[in-house]
Amino acid sequence: MQRLSESSIRPLIVRRSPSGLRGTINVPGDKSISHRALMFAALAQGRTVIKGLLEGEDVLRTADAMRALGATISRDGSDWVVEGRGVGQLREPDDVLDMGNSGTGARLLSGILSSHPFNSVMTGDASLRSRPMRRVTAPLAENGACFVTRRDERLPMAIVGTGAAKPLNYRLPVASAQVKSAILLAGLNADGETRVEEPVATRDHTENMLRHFGVPVRVETTTDGGRVIFLQGPAHLTARDVIVPGDPSSAAFPIVAALLLPQSDIVIRGIGLNPLRTGLLTTLRDMGGDLRLENERIEGGEPVGDLHVRGSDLRCVDVPADRAPSMIDEYPVLAVACSFANGTSRLRGLAELRVKESDRLAATVALLEASGVVVRVEGDDMLIDGLGAGQVPGGGKVATRMDHRLAMSAIVLGLAAGQPVDVDDTAFIDTSFPDFIGLMNKLGANLGGTADAS
Ligand code: S3P
């Protein structure tokens, strides 16, 4: 596969789809689970086979980093095979670890590196270098590691890890699975009990996968809906094969496109249905979306199912703030759905969107406004005046700001809007959904080729 480079731009003009979407597809493997599978397999003793790994740029960066830390990682047909080194046994990398566009890769790896006794340097692309790392460096420094960052705790950063890490006891100030995971990963090589408290439950793939690799993780629920996670270190991970489910955050784009285009009738097979990831499905059902789950089952320890989606008239919605962690990456495409709904929608508690691959709050407002939708931000809430099915004028030029989810949201908007939407760059879609355009075309979207303007 051609690797993503910041200098190759792929613009795209998106025209209204002449008919609905039809057919059956699989979406690529879950990004969160794929990062974890590679990291945990590298920390395990023995050989792990990973099926369904997302071969997106973000995950390939994590594979490169774990190789640089001493794991042996190879591809065998469509499987990925990892020979792990064991907790505490990674080796000092002999070059800078470049995590590309991936906040998850950078933050989770910071936890691992903090409790290994060597020095490393981490960087990323311009988007990742602008994202806050303080949320992980502040708690992790308490275990004895030392972080030297640029101004405002931005990458690149140097990490002086410790071989004698103290276990952390930390209450997350923001609901973040990345921060929770970084602390748990640091705790694997600390002596004693690590305790992390989260105010609102966030995706629990780290907890699930640690158990899968044989690490006892205890979880208590608090009276106000939060969770406390306990882990005893030093821990031992035993290699176990992993099956990665389809990514619900990637499925979000064909799902919304199918809802917005009348006469659509599609099936997406094998989507991950972890309840801490399904906020978008709940919300779209609240809006009147025709979504039916079929063939629900457990695969590789995670719930999965096939989702049948039909074109639907949508009504506005009021999404509560405590639903945000279960759909944090889906707000840009939900905002597109709200633009085509009847009435004014309110999406509450979106502060975290400001620190994603781009400032997604500002970028989503700009995306909708460029296509003639009235949208405003009140505090951390976004309000969208829906225009009704097929009624968004379109015609806008969209700046995607190195953000894959903005690019895919802009494409979904363009497929249903009146006038063509001009998307400045679709290259970053490769970070999470490499064949997005091909799969949408398989469903009948009729998206043109992506001219390479580099
Ligand atoms: C992720 C957690 C979320 C999400 C990101 C993946 C993870 O970030 O936005 O795409 O895999 O843990 P936060 O934990 O910072 O909200």
UniProtKB/TrEMBL annotation:
<feature type="binding site">
    <location>
        <position position="178"/>
    </location>
    <ligand>
        <name>3-phosphoshikimate</name>
    </ligand>
</feature>
<comment type="subunit">
    <text>Monomer.</text>
</comment>
<dbReference type="GO" id="GO:0005737">
    <property type="term" value="C:cytoplasm"/>
</dbReference>
<keyword id="KW-0808">Transferase</keyword>
<feature type="binding site">
    <location>
        <position position="176"/>
    </location>
    <ligand>
        <name>3-phosphoshikimate</name>
    </ligand>
</feature>
<dbReference type="InterPro" id="IPR023193">
    <property type="entry name" value="EPSP_synthase_CS"/>
</dbReference>
<feature type="binding site">
    <location>
        <position position="360"/>
    </location>
    <ligand>
        <name>phosphoenolpyruvate</name>
    </ligand>
</feature>
<dbReference type="InterPro" id="IPR013792">
    <property type="entry name" value="RNA3'P_cycl/enolpyr_Trfase_a/b"/>
</dbReference>
<dbReference type="GO" id="GO:0009073">
    <property type="term" value="P:aromatic amino acid family biosynthetic process"/>
</dbReference>
<feature type="active site" description="Proton acceptor">
    <location>
        <position position="329"/>
    </location>
</feature>
<dbReference type="Pfam" id="PF00275">
    <property type="entry name" value="EPSP_synthase"/>
</dbReference>
<dbReference type="GO" id="GO:0009423">
    <property type="term" value="P:chorismate biosynthetic process"/>
</dbReference>
<protein>
    <recommendedName>
        <fullName>3-phosphoshikimate 1-carboxyvinyltransferase</fullName>
        <ecNumber>2.5.1.19</ecNumber>
    </recommendedName>
</protein>
<feature type="binding site">
    <location>
        <position position="103"/>
    </location>
    <ligand>
        <name>phosphoenolpyruvate</name>
    </ligand>
</feature>
<comment type="pathway">
    <text>Metabolic intermediate biosynthesis; chorismate biosynthesis; chorismate from D-erythrose 4-phosphate and phosphoenolpyruvate: step 6/7.</text>
</comment>
<feature type="binding site">
    <location>
        <position position="31"/>
    </location>
    <ligand>
        <name>phosphoenolpyruvate</name>
    </ligand>
</feature>
<keyword id="KW-0963">Cytoplasm</keyword>
<comment type="function">
    <text>Catalyzes the transfer of the enolpyruvyl moiety of phosphoenolpyruvate (PEP) to the 5-hydroxyl of shikimate-3-phosphate (S3P) to produce enolpyruvyl shikimate-3-phosphate and inorganic phosphate.</text>
</comment>
<dbReference type="GO" id="GO:0003866">
    <property type="term" value="F:3-phosphoshikimate 1-carboxyvinyltransferase activity"/>
</dbReference>
<feature type="binding site">
    <location>
        <position position="405"/>
    </location>
    <ligand>
        <name>phosphoenolpyruvate</name>
    </ligand>
</feature>
<feature type="binding site">
    <location>
        <position position="36"/>
    </location>
    <ligand>
        <name>3-phosphoshikimate</name>
    </ligand>
</feature>
<feature type="binding site">
    <location>
        <position position="356"/>
    </location>
    <ligand>
        <name>3-phosphoshikimate</name>
    </ligand>
</feature>
<dbReference type="InterPro" id="IPR001986">
    <property type="entry name" value="Enolpyruvate_Tfrase_dom"/>
</dbReference>
<keyword id="KW-0057">Aromatic amino acid biosynthesis</keyword>
<feature type="binding site">
    <location>
        <position position="131"/>
    </location>
    <ligand>
        <name>phosphoenolpyruvate</name>
    </ligand>
</feature>
<comment type="similarity">
    <text>Belongs to the EPSP synthase family.</text>
</comment>
<feature type="binding site">
    <location>
        <position position="31"/>
    </location>
    <ligand>
        <name>3-phosphoshikimate</name>
    </ligand>
</feature>
<dbReference type="GO" id="GO:0008652">
    <property type="term" value="P:amino acid biosynthetic process"/>
</dbReference>
<feature type="binding site">
    <location>
        <position position="329"/>
    </location>
    <ligand>
        <name>3-phosphoshikimate</name>
    </ligand>
</feature>
<feature type="binding site">
    <location>
        <position position="178"/>
    </location>
    <ligand>
        <name>phosphoenolpyruvate</name>
    </ligand>
</feature>
<feature type="binding site">
    <location>
        <position position="32"/>
    </location>
    <ligand>
        <name>3-phosphoshikimate</name>
    </ligand>
</feature>
<dbReference type="InterPro" id="IPR006264">
    <property type="entry name" value="EPSP_synthase"/>
</dbReference>
<keyword id="KW-0028">Amino-acid biosynthesis</keyword>
<dbReference type="InterPro" id="IPR036968">
    <property type="entry name" value="Enolpyruvate_Tfrase_sf"/>
</dbReference>
